[in-house]
Amino acid sequence: MNTREVREEIEELNRIFASISEDGNPVVVEGKKDAEALRALGVEVEILVFNRGESVTVFCERVAAEYRRVVILTDWDRTGRHLAHLLVDGFRSVGVECNMEYRARIAGLCRRETKDVEGLYRHYRRLKMVVSE
Fold first, then answer.
1. 80: CATH
2. Which helix (H) or strand (E) holds 99?
3. Which has more pLDDT, 51 or 27?
4. What's the domain count of the chain?
5. Alpha helix locations (H) across the chain?
6. CA distance 29 to 108
7. This prediction's pTM
8. What is the overall mean pLDDT for the chain?
C-alpha cells in the first residue's frame, strides 16, 4: 500500500468514525476492549457492550426499552457475523432499527489488516505512522 492509499484509508476511517458520532445512535459491540478501541478512535456515542452474560433476547429487550435505533459493530470474523445476524433478528423483533452499514464499510477497508473492532485502534495507529515517516 503506497502513502496515497494509506492517507485515503485514514480519511475514510475518520469519516466513518465522525459519521457514527454525528448519527448519535448507540453502538453495539461484542466486548469491553472493542468499546475502548472505539473511544480511542474518537467515537462519541453511547457504546453498549453485549458480552455481559445476557442472552441476545434479554439484551435486545433491555436496549429496546431505551432506544429505537442502534449501530451494530461486531467483528467481521465468522463469530462476529453470526452475532450480528442474531442481534439484527433480536432487535427487529422488538422494534429497533439496526444500522450495519458502518460495520460493512470498516470491514471492507480493514479486513486484510484486522478481523475485529478491538484491533482497529492498533491498525489506525500503524497507518498514521506510515504517513508520518
1. 3.40.1360.10
2. strand 97-99
3. 27
4. 1
5. 3-23, 32-40, 56-64, 78-93, 101-110, 120-132
6. 18
7. 0.93
8. 94
